[in-house]
Specification:
By secondary structure, the chain is α+β, with helices and mostly antiparallel strands. Helices cover 40% and strands 17% of the residues. Strands 2-3-1-9-8-10 form a 6-stranded antiparallel beta sheet. Strands 4-5-6-7-11-12 form a 6-stranded antiparallel beta sheet. The protein is globular and about 70 Å long.
C-alpha cells in the first residue's frame, strides 16, 4: 500500500523545494516514510509503511517518469505483447504502445501519473472501477496531485474553500458531480478515465467502455456460471497477499461468498479473520433465523473466526462526524478492528448487489420499456399487486415527475431549505430548484439500469472513503467482485440471466454452488432489519454527544451559509425513535458538524 503525490510546473519554472516539502508533509501519515525525487519542472514521491509491502514506485523509462500506486493481475497477458521486468515497467511500455488507452489492457487496481517530459504533459490514470483514489488541482499552470483531496487542501499551497454546489447537493440529496470534491479547485479522476494536463489545459478521456461489450447470445446459463466461477476464484486469489487477511462476513451472499473462497484456499485459518457489521448483542430481529445464526454456520463450516461490531453509546455518532468519513460510517469500527488485528488486506463483497449478484430490482422497469407484456404479467403473478404498485412508484413514476417533486421515492427534502440563509438560497436557486435528478432506472431497460448503476459512481465514492482510513490503519481493501475481467465477462451475458424466472440473484447462486455455505446460498429472506434497528438505536443514543459538539463550536467557526437559529432548534429537539425521519435528522446534524470540521481542519481562515 502507498499514497502518491506530485507537483508539476508547466510554464518552465523551476520547482520550489519549499512547495514540495509542504505537499510531502501534508500527505505523510503517522509512521509513514517517503521516497521522492525532484526534476527541473516536477517533483514526485510516495509514502509507505516500512513494515508493510509498498505498492508505490518511481520509474524512468525513455522520456517518461512514472509514479504509481499499482497492482496488476493480468501480467501473463501483457507478456504476449512485450517483455518487462516488473508491473511498473509493464505499465510504462503499455503507455508507449497504446497511449492513454493503455489502461484498458490492464486488469488491476491503480493510480498512476505519467510525466511525459518530451511533450511536457502529465497523464493521471485511474483503474476501471476506482479501487485506488486519485485527486488533483490544476491552477495557474501548476499541477498538484495526491491520492486524497484532504491532503492537497492541507498543504496550503493555494487558497481553497468548500464547494458550495457540492454542499447543496449533499444536503438535498441531489446527485453530486463525482469529479468535484468537497473543495473548490480540487477534483477526482473519474474511474476508467485518464486526465491529461498540459499548457493547454485539462483533457478528460474515458478509456473503459463496458457499454460497447457485445452480448454473447448463444451462451447457455450453466456455461456462463461455470466460467464466472473460475474468473471469480482467480480474481480473489490474485488479490491475496502475505500476512493476515480480513474479510467482510454477513448472512448474505456477496461478502460471505468471497469469504468462503478465501477459506477454501488458505490452509492456515489463523491467517483469516471475518468481520461482521451485525452486532452480536442483538440476536432477535423477528425472523426464524437471525444473521448471527447464518454467520455462525459459516464460521463452523469453514473454521474461520468472525469478529462482530460492538459500539459504545457515543461511538456511532462520533464516527458519523469524522470529517473525512461520511460514506457508510458503520465501516469505521471494522477498520479499527482490522488495524488492531494487523491485517494486510481486507476483502469486501462490495459491488455484488450492483453487478454479479444483481437482484430482480429494476426488472419491472425493463419489462415496461422493453415492451414485454408476457413478462409483466408474470411479474404481477409472481410478485403480487403490492410489489407491482411499489415497482411502478419507484421505477416508473420518478422518471415522469421532475425535480424530486415525487415524495414516494426519495423526493426532494424541501424542508431543509430552512437551514440555509436566504442570501445563500438566492445565490444557488438554479441548483436547488432546477436540478437534474436522473432516475437510476432510466428508460434503457435492464441494460440501461446496469450502466446507470455503474455511472452513478456511488461505488468509488465509498471506496475513496474506505481507502483513506484503511491506509491510516496500515492495510488496504480488495474487491474481487469488481475485477475488470469478471465485470467484462458479466456484461457480455444475456440480460435475461439477471432476472430469469424473477428468481433473485439466480446467476450468483449458481456460481457459488459448492463454495458458499448452503444455508446462505439458498436463503431468500436476507434483510437489513437487525442492522437498521441497531443503527437507529445508536443514533438516538448519540443525540446528546452531537448536541455537545454543536454548542462547543466557537461563534467564529460556524459556517456562514447556514441559519444558526434553525440548527439550534434542530439540535435541541429529540430524535424520533425509528423510521426514515430518524436517519434524515441524524444526517442533518452530522453533515453540519462534518462541514464545520472540514473547514477548521483543512481551510485556513
Amino acid at each position: 500500500m502507498s499514497t502518491i503525490f506530485v507537483i508539476f510546473y508547466f510554464a518552465g519554472e523551476k520547482i520550489k523545494e519549499e512547495d514540495f516539502q509542504l505537499l510531502a508533509g501534508a500527505v505523510k501519515g503517522e509512521y509513514f516514510v517517503s521516497q521522492a525525487e525532484t526534476g527541473d519542472h516536477y517533483a514526485l514521491g510516495f509514502n509507505y509503511l516500512p513494515d508493510k509491502s509498498s505498492r508505490g514506485s518511481i520509474l524512468h523509462h525513455q522520456d517518461l517518469v512514472l509514479l504509481a500506486d499499482l497492482r496488476v493481475y493480468n501480467l501473463d497477458k501483457l507478456k504476449t505483447h512485450f517483455d518487462f521486468a516488473n508491473e511498473y515497467e509493464a505499465f510504462a511500455k503499455a503507455f508507449l504502445k497504446w497511449g492513454i488507452s493503455c489502461a484498458d489492457y490492464i486488469s488491476g487496481e491503480f493510480a498512476v501519473v505519467i510525466v511525459d517530459q518530451k511533450n511536457n504533459e502529465a497523464h493521471l490514470i485511474r483503474d476501471h472501477i476506482g479501487a485506488r483514489p486519485l485527486t488533483y488541482c490544476y491552477l495557474a499552470k501548476h499541477l498538484i496531485f495526491s491520492s486524497h483531496e484532504y491532503r492537497i487542501a492541507k498543504s496550503g499551497l493555494f487558497p481553497t474553500r468548500l464547494s458550495e454546489s457540492q454542499l447543496i447537493k449533499r444536503f438535498f440529496r441531489i446527485k453530486s458531480t463525482y469529479s468535484q470534491t468537497e473543495y473548490e479547485q480540487i477534483f477526482k479522476v473519474t474511474p476508467g478515465h485518464v486526465v491529461t494536463i498540459s499548457r493547454n489545459g485539462v483533457r478528460d478521456t474515458a478509456y473503459w467502455h463496458p457499454e460497447k461489450i457485445k452480448t454473447n447470445k448463444s451462451i447457455i446459463f450453466s456455461e456462463a456460471a461455470d466460467h464466472l466461477r473460475q474468473l471469480l476464484i482467480s480474481a480473489t486469489l490474485a488479490r491475496l497477499e502475505p500476512g493476515k487477511t480480513g474479510v467482510h462476513v454477513s448472512g448474505g451472499l456477496d461478502s460471505t461468498g468471497i469469504a468462503c473462497i478465501l477459506a477454501d484456499y488458505i490452509d492456515d485459518k489463523n491467517r483469516l479473520i471475518g468481520y461482521s457489521w451485525t452486532p452480536e448483542e442483538l440476536n432477535d430481529a423477528g425472523d426464524d433465523k437471525n444473521e448471527k445464526d447464518f454467520i455462525d454456520e459459516f464460521s463452523d463450516e469453514k473454521g474461520v473466526m468472525v469478529r462482530y461490531l460492538t459500539l459504545d453509546k457515543s461511538d456511532f455518532a462520533r464516527d458519523a462526524v469524522e470529517p473525512e468519513f461520511e460514506i457508510m460510517h458503520m465501516e469505521y469500527p471494522t477498520i479499527r478492528m482490522a488495524g488492531k488485528d494487523g491485517v494486510t488486506t481486507l476483502f469486501s463483497g462490495w459491488g455484488g448487489d450492483e453487478f454479479l449478484s444483481l437482484s430482480t430490482l429494476g426488472s419491472f422497469n425493463h419489462f415496461v420499456f422493453s415492451f414485454k407484456p408476457v413478462w409483466l404479467l408474470n411479474y404481477v403473478r409472481k410478485c403480487g399487486i403490492r410489489s407491482t404498485i411499489y415497482a411502478i412508484r419507484s421505477e416508473i413514476l420518478p422518471l415522469l415527475v421532475p425535480f424530486g417533486l415525487l415524495p414516494s421515492f426519495r423526493g426532494m427534502e424541501w424542508s431543509n431549505l430552512r437551514f440555509f440563509k436566504t442570501s445563500f438560497i438566492k445565490k444557488h436557486w438554479k441548483i436547488i430548484f432546477f436540478h437534474n435528478r436522473k432516475n437510476i432506472y432510466g428508460f434503457g431497460g435492464r441494460k440501461g439500469f446496469i450502466f446507470n448503476l455503474l455511472n452513478n459512481y456511488h461505488i468509488p465514492t465509498r471506496m475513496d472513503t474506505w481507502s483513506h482510513y484503511a491506509e491510516k490503519y496500515g492495510f488496504e481493501y480488495k474487491y474481487p467482485l469488481l475485477d475488470k475481467e469478471v465485470l467484462e465477462y458479466w456484461f457480455s451475458l444475456p440480460v435475461r440471466f439477471t432476472h430469469e424466472n424473477l428468481d433473485s440473484r439466480l446467476l450468483y447462486r449458481e456460481v457459488m454452488k459448492g463454495i458458499l455455505t448452503e444455508s446462505i446460498r439458498t436463503r431468500r429472506d436476507k434483510s437489513e432489519t437487525l442492522r437498521i434497528k441497531y443503527s437507529q438505536q445508536k443514533m438516538v443514543e448519540g443525540k446528546e454527544y452531537l448536541e455537545s459538539l454543536f454548542y462547543a463550536i466557537p461563534e467564529k467557526e460556524h459556517l456562514p451559509y447556514f441559519d444558526l437559529k434553525a440548527y439550534q432548534k434542530l439540535f435541541d429537539n429529540e430524535l424520533p425513535k425509528e423510521g426514515l425521519t430518524t436517519w434524515f435528522q441524524f444526517e442533518l446534524r452530522c453533515s453540519y458538524l462534518r462541514n464545520v470540521e472540514l473547514v477548521k481542519k483543512y481551510i485556513a481562515r
